[in-house]
Amino acid sequence: MKERIENLVSREDYSEAERDRLVRLMLLFVELSDPPDPDGDFPKYAEYKERFLNCAAGEDGEALEEAFLNLYAHLHMHEARYADEERRRMDEAGGYWAHAGGLSPILKAAPWIRPDTVSTDLGAGNGLQGLLLQYLYPHEKTVQIEISSRMVEIGRRLQAWLGIPNERVEWVTGDVCEQSLDGLDFIYLYRPVRPSTDRGRAFYENLAGLLDGSHGQVVIFSIADCLKEFLSPKFETFYDDGHLTCFKSGL
Ligand SMILES: C[S@@+](CC[C@H](N)C(=O)[O-])C[C@H]1O[C@@H](n2cnc3c(N)ncnc32)[C@H](O)[C@@H]1O
């Protein structure tokens, strides 16, 4: 199966190393049983998985990638459920819904994650992004911060299902605007709040201020970025494809 998938995955927008990581992820999902789903959050998983396996046994690389993306997006979920208070807080800062950041940040993160890295996903949804990062690049800890307690509950189950050890992931059910964000080496975010609101703007200002004073290298992967305008010159942009923007500070 490995060779078959390797031969099929040949998209040119990935480097060879990124393709290898994509193949590893695909093989993981070939092997995994269906996810735990006591509340019916993944109603189409079996259908998407079957399509993915059929494509893996076929000849069409593009169809395989599309089938894999559908499976990933279904597992990521695009709608979170919020308790009334969670929704109120979220709306106050212009919180963004649970859209998926996609596979490219996961595949591109390898050079920036060391075994002693502490990573975070600010507005993690069910934490799939951070869990896949831990799967591909086991590292000290991933801090998953998410306002929807339901999504965190689902994420904890996904963690066990993916076999990521407990001590590798810290789940924080809460508002990103209220967390202390010290000691992070790798920061991933997909616009958890909007800078057009007072609370959202204060979040980006505080984060940028904290990062300006940080020691050691910090790398930021930001989807649909709105942090750049707040970051100090200490940070340089080293990648930007219009979807994912990456920043790093000096060592
Ligand atoms: C666009 S999604 C990104 C999900 C995931 N990080 C990814 O990139 O695939 C934004 C997430 O931020 C969460 N969120 C929104 N406002 C938040 C807040 N104030 N504090 C924490 N999380 C929040 C949403 O519930 C949602 O899961």
Describe this structure in words.
With 251 residues, this protein is of the alpha/beta class. The chain is 41% helix and 15% strand. Strand 2 (141-146), helix 8 and strand 3 form a beta-alpha-beta unit. The chain is globular. S-adenosylmethionine binds at residues 76, 80, 89-90, 93, 95-96, 98-101, 121, 123-125, 129, 145-148, 151, 175-177, 190-193, 223. S-adenosylmethionine is lined by residues 76, 80, 89-90, 93, 95-96, 98-101, 121, 123-125, 129, 145-148, 151, 175-177, 190-193, 223.
Record the SSE blueprint.
Layout: H1 2-8, H2 16-31, H3 45-56, H4 61-76, H5 84-92, H6 104-108, E1 118-122, H7 128-136, E2 141-146, H8 149-162, E3 169-173, E4 186-190, H9 198-212, E5 219-223, E6 235-240, E7 244-249
Parallel strand pairs: 1-2, 1-4, 2-3, 4-5
Antiparallel strand pairs: 5-7, 6-7
This protein binds S-adenosylmethionine.
